[in-house]
Amino acid sequence: xxxxxxxxxxxxxxxxxxxxxxxxxxxxxxxxxxxxxxxxxxxxxxxxxxxxxxxxxxxxxxxxxxxxxxxxxxxxxxxxxxxxxxxxxxxxxxxxxxxxxxxxxxxxxxxxxxxxxxxxxxxxxxxxxxxxxxxxxxxxxxxxxxxxxxxxxxxxxxxxxxxxxxxxxxxxxxxxxxxxxxxxxxxxxxxxxxxxxxxxxxxxxxxxxxxxxxxxxxxxxxxxxx
Length: 226
Hints:
The protein is mainly alpha-helical. It has helices spanning 5-25, 41-67, 69-99, 101-104, 109-119, 130-156, 161-173, 185-205, 210-216; strands spanning 2-3, 218-219. The chain has one domain (2-215). 72% of the residues lie in helices and 2% in strands. Helix 1 (5-25) runs antiparallel to helix 8, helix 2 (41-67) runs antiparallel to helix 3 (69-99) and helix 2 (41-67) crosses helix 8.
């Protein structure tokens, strides 16, 4: 079995596409985040999809960075690290929502509601402890990292520039949700999903040439350095 540079790039490109599809899909007819939703089958399904989305996004973003590590430079490195940390903390947030909130819904309904309120940018009535730190880190990493990474990808010009520009604009524009009604949360997420689909597809389609691929291939079971 041979693991090649092209196969890795194409796989991570498809991961970015999957992340974008899931990101858009979970927004469709998403009910309000409240106590009535927590613990339902729909809540479990949607949270599971969000967890999968963050995993695919982490793989996809890593592939996009490694695809053009020389071209994106320091800005790309900083953007990649911050954006990845945003998705990593987002994974933690979604996992807590999926597995912890339903378990304490009946014993601590006020806390659960406060976490849900904070997750959509509202001001919780009580103290939610470390959950607030995770939510803040996730939001900052997503917005700032997406902006920097999108700019670096646009400047590098290796993958689709329209998708790179859309990623930068879509992620940083979510800062406006702090002053907009909750109803805007779902529509604002869709452009980022489209950007991930575009970037992933572009990376998959414009992967390295066969000659470059053979130079960078590693055969499983054999040492990389001979």
